[in-house]
Every structure is written in structure tokens, then in C-alpha cells.
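Trying the structure run again after the queue cleared.
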Amino acid sequence: MTRKRLLILLTFFSISIILLIIRVFYIQVEMGERLAISATSQRLSALDIKSHRGNILDSNSIPFTNRVNEVYVVIKPLQLKGKENAIKKIANILEIELYQFKRLIEFKKEPLIYQSDIDTKNLLIKENIPGVSFINSLKRHDTNSIAKHVIGYLNKADGVGQTGIERSYDDILNLNTKSSIGIVTDAKENFVTGLGYRFINPLNHEKLHVKLTLNYHIQKIAENAMDTRNLKGAVVIQNVLNGDIVSMVSKPDFDPDKIDEYLESPDKELFNRAVASYNLGSIFKTIVLASAYLENKTPPSDFYCPGYLMLGNKEFKCSSYAAGGHGFVDVKKAFASSCNSYFIELGINTGIENILDTAKKFGLGSFTGINEQGIDESFGYLPKLDKYYTHGDIANISIGQGDILATPLQVSNIIATIANGGIKNTVNIVDSIVDSEGNTVEKIKKQKGERILSKEICDNIKSFMEEVTINGTGTNANLDAYGGAGGKTGSAETGQVIDGEKVVHAWFAGYFPKTNPKYSIVVFIEDGKSGGNVAAPIFKEIAKNIIEKGL
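Done. C-alpha cells:
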């Protein structure tokens, strides 16, 4: 054989060996995980553990979901058969019925999965029982989760979003992959020694997350303020400069793992009170005042309030009725003391058409827009100008006791509009869809503002709102030590009577700080009786905590 032919053969075999090494490396390293899963799946009797989903994040990318560690205890029947003592220990620690557990061990070969916790895991580890292993995971929701009405919950059967952001963005959050565990068998369904029980984690898929405008820390502050008082109601906090909702609270809330328990509950835990319609009470006086200014109706400066106002043969009482009236008041004192007599007179002089038109400009009777971002909301109720309004009708509307209904969310936007100088911003609760690196994949947030009031009008109203917290009905919301605040109280009669007492909702709607306001806060307490005594202190606590934490 010639030297040349030897060289050719050597080169051929060398190249072949190199290609073979490259191919083996590719199969083992690059394709190893994929092929292992594929091959094992063909002979694996698997049991799904959980679905994988993207996260729901706050405005700073802090997750609302998947925050708490959870443990799945995996029991391997084929390794426990005949081990009576071990079976008893497991049943005792997991707090499951012994007889049924023994039957499962005896007749099943597939793994048994029990959702548990760290403490139970540690107890089982201490016993060092063969045939028991663990899968560490993250719990999607738990009893300590916050913003539950916004985030929503999943159907336990299939892991599909049922309400809130979980439902509306399910196609984005749901990765359609599941972790599984099972027993590896041969073609005759016999246990394959050496392979045994296998945990299969799906191949990595690119996760997409939903980023909200909510601030996790502000949401926590607002929820704590409501939880400590055990009240039914809602809190909405809005960034006055851009319309972002930074907190939305509805109480009482629910345990996402026990939804069935709330379906017939009289406390309506699943009901989102932050976006439901309610009577406004004296909160509506803010609209009446704005309407008067828009129509150049100068509020009287020397109105006399005897504690009531007669319209025909009907008497409309003021909050000062028992004290004999407010006496002579100007607009500042009338607003601060929430004088019904004054605002009935002002409302009649302003005209129902102008009042309802102003209410419409503020967004009453229409959606704020978060319904397009995944959160169902009521549009309230704004009467139409298709009938004749008597002075009595106008009187009721002027003091917020008429047919007008609004949501705490809508009220937060009214206050934000006044606080920022008259620009009504589009309300947002979802910012964007982001990838695992935080890069924006799709922008959801809409940024649009419309001027509906002049800065001069807003400055006037703000000065009156600030007087409410200094010398008026809202002194329990005073923040002078923290930069000041402005607001309006409301105690809204509903016409309902429970156990012989009228149902009166309590409101406080305000902004802070006084100079260059940052947030509007609306506190609504169902049947809270007094806005000044019940809702105002909650406003103060929330605002004070936000300021102290530099949020």
C-alpha cells in the first residue's frame, strides 16, 4: 500500500472519528434533556403536578403571584408495600385516613401526590422513610396574597384563570406546560428497575408576565388599614399626574383555594366593591361646585342656613339641623361644613342640565377604561335629561342623595382631576406585557389627558377641600404635619333599612400633599354611617404610611 493511500485512509478515519465525537456530544449535551423527556414519556405513567404560568407584577416588577414556597410530598407505593410501620408514620404526619392510604399503597403503582408545607416536609425527612420524596415549588396564590380582586384566581381543576388579570390575560400567562411525576414501565406495564419513579420538568419556555400599575407596597399599606378595622368597603389610590391606579382594595376578600365557600356568602367576599356603584352623598357637592364655576355662577358669600331649607311643603334638613343651623356661611365654610342648605340653593341656581353635564365630563355614567384592561367595572348611573326635574329633584341630586351612582374608582379620578389642576387622565391598571428580562413586549397602558376644568377653578376647589381637613367635617384626615391634604366627606343614605336602622355609606375622598399633590385616595365604607368619623381616619393612616415610607 502506497504512502499516499495510507494518508488518505488515515485522513478519512480521523474525520469520521471527529464527526462521531461531535454527534455524540450533540446528542448527549444539546439534545440530552429533550430526548430523555421524549423517551421517558413514551413509557411513563405520569401524574400532572401543576401548570406553569407567567407572573403578575407590580409597577416595580415585584411579583403578586408565586411568592410562597410550597411542597409536594411524593409517595412511591412500590417501595412501601409491606412496610406497615412506615405507612402508619406517613399517614399520621400527613393527617390522612390510614385504611384508605394502605389500600392505595397496596393496589397502586403510580405515585401519590400530596400538597403540603415545609414543616410537614421536615417531619418526614426526620423519619427518613424510603419511598418518600419531595418537590419544592411556589404557590400561585395563598391566603396572604394581596390585590386578590385585581389579580383573580384559577380554576383548581385545570389551572385556567377564572377572574381578574388571571382570566383576562390567561392566553399570555398560561404556558400550556406541566410538571409531572410518574412510574417508568416497560411495554407490558411492568416496573422498570433502576429507572423507577421519575420527575419530569418541561423544557424551558419563554415566560411572559403581566405588569400592572399597582404598587405592591402601597397596596399592602391600604389593605392593612382595612384589615385592622375589619370593615366592608374599598380603597382606591391613584397617581394624580398620569391616571395610574397604584392601589385597589376590596374588603372582605377571599382565600383563592376555597372559592366554593364564598359563592353563597352574605358578606360577598368575591364582589369587588372598588368598581361597584354606590350612592355618593356629599362627595357630589364637589361636582355641583365645579359646575357652578363653569357656568360663572358665583357662589353666595352671605347665605344664611337655619338648619333646613323649605321647597314647597317639603323640608330638606341640613347636618346642622339639631344645632339650629350653620348661620351665615360663605362657600368656603359651606363646603367645609358640608352645608346641605347652601348646596341645594347653589344647585338650583346652577341648573340640572349644567350639573349633569359637568358630572359627565368627570366621567360619571361611563367606564373609566380599566374594563378594557381586564378588570370588570360598573359605569354607575347618571340620570338623563329626558324628564322634568322639580326643585325637589335638583335638591336631592345637589347633596348626593338622588339617583346618581358612582364607583370608588370613578371618585378617585374626580379627585385626581381636581388635584392635578383640571386634566382628566385615562385611568390605567395594566402597564404592559414583559418578558423574563423585564423588556416590554406589548404596551397596554394608554396615556391621554383632557382638560375639563381651568387651573383657577381647581385651585379654588382645592382651597375649600383643604379647609375640610383643617376646620371642617374631615379633621380626622388632617395631614398638616406631613405636608397637608384636601378632601371631602360623604355620608350617603341608601334608602335601605336593616334591623330598624338606615343604611348609610361612609366616604372620604381626598388628595395629598397639599402642594404638588401626588395621590388621590378614596375610602368607601359600606354602612359606615359617618365619612368624617370612619372613612377619614383610614385616609390619614394610609397617606401617613405612604409618606413615611417615601412611596
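Confidence is low (pLDDT under 50) at residues 35-47. Worth checking whether this holds up in the mutant runs.
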